[in-house]
Amino acid sequence: MQRDLTQGSITGTMLRFALPMILGNLLQQFYNIADTLIVGRYLGANALAAVGAAYALMSFLTSILLGLCMGSGAVFSLRYGEKNEKVLKKSIFVSFVMIAAVALAVNGVVFLFIDPIMGLLCVPAEIYSMMREYLWMIFWGIIAVFLYNFFASLLRSVGNSFVPLLFLGIAAVLNVVLDLVFVLVLHWGVAGAAGATVIAQYVSGIGIAVYTYVKMPEFRVAGSDMGMDRDVLREISQFSVLTCAQQSVMNFGILMVQGLVNSFGTVVMAAFAAAVKIDSFAYMPVQDFGNAFSTFIAQNYGAGKKDRIRAGIKSAVMVSVAFCIVISLVVWIFAEKLMLIFVQPQETGILAVGVQYLRIEGAFYCGIGCLFLLYGLYRAVRKPGMSVVLTVISLGTRVALAYVLSAIPAIGVAGIWAAVPIGWVLADLVGFLYYGKVRREM
Keyword Membrane, does the record have it (predicted)? Predict the structure, then answer.
């Protein structure tokens, strides 16, 4: 199932590799979509607000692990493109040990400091206990998130995007079934929704780890590969830490925005919780296409095929922009109907705020589509620091403008939504300008 991305038609190769990744991450969204849908419909607006606010915190925490795995995956792709199996195995060992240690540390910290963290998020008193109950359960899944993302990144780095999709599909179905049982049959409330997600995460994480060990003997690490090679550690650290910083900055900015949203009360919190799920679902395909594009570029960069890289960049931009135009129209036109998936028709206040959010953000998906391509490009050509710079520009603008604009009475909460596309556009401009320098180097 491995795919050599240095051969074959460029657009077709990228799309065939990207499609399972897109389907996989759409399925991954079902972890939180299922919670939001069932909680919103059957446990009420306060429960929806609690789960939505918890999602922002979990996204930040898991982004640390996701960034480390993505950075390591870029190194794996480079080594695979070079056909350097010995260094590839050493890289696998070093990155696994390093990321596992981080995962254990993160898990310990969040359990110890759960209450101070919730205090920083300005969680309203009426949902505090509910959100704490949900978080306490969901935190048990952090190790499972590490396992799945590490082995998924390893398999994708060598062109196998189907197996990660398979395990996510199994987990997504299991999550929905357990959600219905725990919430509707056993009446375990938000803790039941969290428990369903955690069980599903461990099924996918352990499952893909066992599959990789049994079915991919070429990745089994022998005793001679288990040293902490200084050069390998330096390279893994450079890519992983910078990609982790990029993902963490991105989600920390979102977490700060979540704190601002919380200050507007439970109606806005509930609307934001539902609208963010729709928003994430809408642009998830271009995010995953950006990750597939990054693997394509990394393999060809390792193989020294620079003409193929330039042609791949042009093809990827055209595909991404075309998709974003279509999805923007869909979200703009069907914003209210999409909100009604999560919210009861009588919740008119929540519906109005959610529709406003979707129509402001949905008009500018081309901005985020191009930004994901820029992230992937700079990570693949050994410039992961530039991805961090673009993220800081995008999220820094978003957070600063969100606080400034929302404080103006005539603008209010709409200022939080408007700050997002402005940040995307500014980061895109910087990324495209810097690309001129990179193109000359290639």
Answer: yes
